[in-house]
Amino acid sequence: MGDKAHAHPGAAGGAPAAGHPSAVRNVVLVGPSGSGKTTLVEALALTAGAVNRAGRVEDGATVSDYDEIERRRRRSVQLSLVPVAWDGCKVNLLDTPGYADFVGELRAGLRAADAALFVVSAAQEAQSVAATTRAAWEECARVGMPRAIVVTHLDTARTSFEDMTRICAENFGGDDPDAVLPLYLPVLGPEAADGHAPLTGLTGLLSRRILDHSSGERTELPPAPGQEEPLRAARNRLIEGIIAESEDESLMDRYLAGEDIDVATLIADLERAVARGAFHPVLTAAPAADGARQGIGTVELLELITRGFPTPLERTPPVVTTPSGKPRPAPVCDPGAPLVAEVVKTSSDPYVGRVSLVRVFSGTLRPDDSVHLCGHGLDATGHAPRPCHEGEIRVGALTSPFGRRQSALDRCVAGDLACVARLGEAETGDTLSPAGAPVLIQPWSTPDPLLPLAVRAHGKADEDKLSQGLARLVAEDPTLRLEQNPDTGQVVLWCLGEAHQEVALDRLRSRYGVQVDAEPYRVALRETFAGRATGRGRHVKQSGGHGQFAICEIEVEPLPPGSGVEFADRVVGGAVPRQFIPSVEKGIRAQAARGLSAGHPLVDVRVTLLDGKAHSVDSSDAAFQTAGALALREAAASSRIQLLEPVCEMSVLVPDDYVGPVMSDLSGRRGRVVGTEQSAGGRTLVRAEVPEIEVGRYAVDLRSLSHGTGRFDRSYARHEAMPPQIADRVRAEPANGSPGT
To answer: Which residues, including other chains, have CB under 8 Å from residue 727's CB and lie 6 or more apart?
Structure first.
C-alpha cells in the first residue's frame, strides 16, 4: 500500500499460530478456472518465505492442489488453506476452485474469509468478466465484504492493463466506476515478434516510484521522463477516487483548492475505504522468475492484505440461535468469550479419517476441550431437511494445514482457522459451542444440484460400501444431494454439473474404494386407461390334490388426475364369496403397481368387480389374487393405455440478452412458457412448465446457452399424458422408468 521496498518474510513452511484476532487476515481468492489463483497463492507463499520454491500447476506440485484428483486433473476442485506470515500478521489464503461446478467450495471460502481477492486473467477476459466471478462479486457486495482485484497474465500477447481496468470498472464498479481504480501501473519490457511483452515491474501511483524486477531483485527507480504525464493523469484520478470514498468531507475541498495532500493521509484514507468495502483497488501480479525470491506485485499484495483488509474484529458476526430456533446474542470476536465455531469444510484423509476445517468466530478452541456439536444438515438451498443432530464431543488434536502438511497448534483463537481430526460425526455447516450452552449458526446458502447421476455398485463386494461412501460424500459436500428414488429404485446423486459428477465418482473409487457404474437416469412415469374397458380373469387349474379355481369380471374407468387406484364391488348373489373380494382387490393393486404397458405404475382409475365364480373346494385367496391380476391385464389389452409423464414448474433467471434463446429452447423441449418477470440487474425470470424427461441435462445446457450467466430451479407440478409418438419410443425401452434426456 505504501510501496515499501523491503519484505517481512515468515518462517518457511507456513505461518505460526495467531495470538489475537487483530493479527489475523482471512482472504479468499475468487476467479474463473485458469485465471491464476493457485499460481498466485504459490507466489505469495514464496514471497512470504513459507516455501523455498514455487510449484507449478502443470507439474502438480503446488501447495494448494495437493489432492490426488487435483494433481491428475491439473485443476482445483476443493477449497484449500495456505497460511503465511507477513508484517506480524497471519494471513490465511483460501484458494477456491474456479469452475462453476464447485461453487459450494467457493461459498465455504467466502464464509471463512473476511475479504476477497478477485483474480482476473488478461488473457481470458478479453471482453468481460466471467459470469461466475460477477455472481461472487455481487454476493460479496450484499454482505459488504471488502474486495480487491488482481490482474494476471499481462505478459500474454495482445493484452492491455488499461483495457482490463476498464472492463473491471464496468463489471464491478456498478454505479460508481471510480471505486475500481489501479494502485500500480505495470511496466512492460521490449515487445517480442509474437507480441509478447514481459512484465518487468510496477509503478506506484501514490509514491511515483518504479518497483523494478528486471534484474531479478526488487529495486526502486524514478520514473522515466516519458512516463510522467500518463502517471500524473492516473495518479490524479486515483487520488480523486480515494477522496470521494473518504470519510473526511473537507479533504475534497482541500484537494480542489490545489493543496498537495500528504501521501500518508491518502494511504490512511485508502486503507479505511478498502476495509469498508467502498473502494476496490486493482493490482497486477506475476510469479517469480527462475531463481527470484519474489514475484512481481506480490509484496504489494501482501501489504494491501495486512494493512488494507479488515481484521476478524471488523466482521459482522453470523446469526446464531439455540438448537430449537430461539434467537441468541451475536457472537463476539474475543478469545475470552464463549466458543462459537463452524465447520466450513469436511474432507477425508486415508490415514486420519474425517478432517474438519473450522472457523472460530468467538472464544478459543483448544485440544481436549469438551464442546457441543450441533448441526441441521445443509441441503442445496440452505434449508434443513434432516433432523438436527447434536451431542457432546471431545476435541482432538488441532493443526494448521499447509497444503497436505499439518502443523500442531495449542489453540485457535477467535478469527482464526484450524483443522480438527475425528471431530465426531461433524458435517459441513455444523456448529461447535460450549458444552451445556449450545448454539447453532445460521447456515449459508448453496445452489440446488439439478443434474442427476444414477449409480449402482459394480459388484457384490461394493454393495455394502456404496451407501457408506455416498453418505460421506454428501456430508463433505452440501452441494451434493442423495436420493433413493422409490419409483425407479435408482440411487441418484444430484450434482451441479458434469465435472462435479466426475469428481464425485472419482472420489468414490479412489478415496472410499467403491467401484460404481453410472447408468441412465430414469424419470418416474405412470400409466392410465384412456377409456372404459372390461376384462375377465380366469384362473382354473386341476392337479392331483387341491386345484385352483377363480373367475372374476371387472370394469375399468379413468378418473381425474391424482385419484390413484379405487376399487369398488358390485357383485350380487354371492357369485364371488365375500372372503375373496379383498383377494381380488389385492391382486388388482399388485398388478397396477407392476404396470401394464411399459412397466410403470397404473394410476387414476376405478376398478369395479362385477361378477365371478368360485369353487367350494378349489377356490382360495391366492387363486382370486391371480384372477384379479389377469382380469386387469385383459382389460388393458382391449383398451388404449396412456403413459403419463411428470411435468416440472421451472423458473429460469437469465440476463435480458438471453431471454429469446431460452424461451425458444424451452419450447423445443415441449415446454409452455407461462410468463416472464423483470428482475434486478438487467435480468428476466422466465416461468415455464416442461416435461421432466426433457430437462435431465438442463443444468449443463442452460450454462452453455447463457454462457454461464443463467440459473434455474424446478419443482414437480403434476403428471400429464405423454404424446403418442414419444410414448411408443418409451415402450420400446426397458421398464422401470424412462431415461432422462
So the answer is: 642, 643
